[in-house]
Write a structure and sequence with these properties.
Length: about 200
């Protein structure tokens, strides 16, 4: 019997090499998947929760479409995780009415431990802010009713910390729609916020 042609030996070797590479890649995918699953089972990450616990408006005046007002909010940030802490490296809070931003302010960076509630007292000031005609009319109408629905927006750059490992930066966005009373004796209803991470 004649020995196989060199071409068929080459094809057989190439086929074995391709099978070996495919097996190695599949094993790596399974291994990475198992590591991720084990980490997830150990850490058991839970979603963050944000509420606005209190809100008030002071020094409100609106004339010739120019707004002056101070908006005070207590933002409650809850980290329910047992093993995940969070670095808030930067945070910007703004308040909007009818999709027009009326005031914004930054919050000092902070570190939130696991299973921790952090309350942030935020003051946002609108000073001679020019509003569009329709926005000014709507806001004046709501002012007459004694309450106004605002949108509070939070944008933060955060990192997660598990043990000694720290994640890369992620952008956290929080959206809240509190109804704020102009009269301070009215009770403020806690407002749950939506989170985009």
């Amino acid at each position: 019997m004649a020995p196989p042609a060199p071409q068929s030996q080459l094809a057989a070797r190439r086929s074995k090499l391709l099978r070996l590479i495919a097996i190695i890649i599949l094993a790596l995918i399974v291994l990475v998947g198992l590591v991720v699953l084990i980490i997830w089972l150990v850490v058991k990450p839970k979603g963050l929760a944000y509420d606005i616990e209190n809100g008030s408006i002071h020094g409100f005046s609106l004339s010739d479409n120019h707004l002056n007002a101070t908006f005070d909010f207590v933002l409650r940030a809850y980290n329910p995780n047992r093993k995940v802490a969070i670095y808030y490296d930067s945070m910007q809070v703004s308040v909007a009415y009818d999709d027009q931003t009326v005031a914004s302010n930054g919050v000092q960076p902070f570190f939130q431990r696991h299973r921790n509630v952090t309350r942030l007292e935020v003051q946002l000031v609108a000073q001679s802010l020019l509003l569009s005609g329709p926005v000014s009319k709507d806001l004046q109408r709501e002012r007459s009713s004694g309450k106004v629905e605002l949108e509070v927006r939070v944008k933060a750059r955060i990192r997660f910390k598990v043990g000694t490992w720290k994640s890369k930066h992620r952008t956290l966005r929080v959206f809240c729609l509190p109804v704020v009373h102009f009269s301070s004796h009215k009770d403020f209803g806690r407002t749950k916020c939506e989170i985009d991470l």
